[in-house]
Structure prediction request, 390 residues.
Amino acid sequence: MKKILALVLATVMLFGLTACGEKPADDAAVLKLGTIGPLTGDAALYGNAVKNGAQIAVDEINALGGLQIEINHQDDEHDAEKSVNAYNNLLDEGTQIIVGSVTSAPCAAVAAEAYEDRVFMLTPSASSTDVIKGRDNVYQMCFTDPNQGAASATYIAEKKLGTKIAVIYNNGDAYSTGIYQTFKDKAAELKLSIVATETFPSDKTTDFKTQLSAAKAAGADLLFLPIYYTPASLIMGQAKDMGYAPKIFGVDGMDGILTMEGFEQSMAEGVMLLTPFSADAEDAKDFVTKYKEAHGDVPNQFAADAYDCVYAIYKAITENEIDATNMSAEELCEKMIEIFSGDFTFDGLTGTGMTWEATGEVTKDPKGMVISETGKDDEGNAVYGYIGMD
Prediction:
């Protein structure tokens, strides 16, 4: 039923409203996109960044004329069941392509449904290989977890950032465990010394004193944290309270910690991470300015990846002269698979010359960044941001 309803709604959507609430011109083609992510709850920073970045891209594209885009943002609260419900809502409203889901476990659940329904998905940030494994309709704009783990170990080794490494990861999360496994394997290959490996069961965990005590007792001078920003912020605070000050190296889940409500930004001084996006880059200035004006924050890589997702979809459709308006989600899915798994290339905020494997994995290079004080605000308070590392 949801497929039939989606096809009907996709046909009549020409007579609907655009994302900005204006009726498109009679001869305008309209594409219906949907985002799924946590707009509320512990991971809301990620979901709202994706929503905001995608919306800026949609507004820019609609201002160009020609193909118009409607976008529907759905909240899944970082919950797999709610993510599937959000997906069904989008299909019932005629959505043709999904930008999402934002986090890995919900995205994997939605991907299973979308594979059966033949709906094309381009996720900005769900990096687990569980998302794309065995599914020809799901593609990633972000690095996969294995790439993040291996790249992090390589970076730490090449830059000689630590002699004794402790890892703290979430063993109840596919994202965190996936990065840890490849980090461990690459670290062994590079002869990095991992002196402590500590786990926690959930992003709801709040007490990390045991894990930190083990790392400190082992003499670890670098903490590798393949986790999201919420537990990372607690680990930083509790390490400070213990008088333990190792270097900290994170992955893309830590991006955005500076905009976390109530977080003492000075605790992040010197924190390192790999990211595909720098808000200070010359080619990001226009996007950063628009984002600041609209939302009062500096965009993180989740916002930039979502922005790139929308533009990649737009380029694939317009460059190949696809009449998306007259296609069902299933028909459009097959065309998008053909394009993305072919010789399609894309230049965006998060990479240039990006291509995709038939597996759905993107090819682009990470950048090493460090958090540091970058200036003062009007009241003389320190302002923190990301600085590129050589």
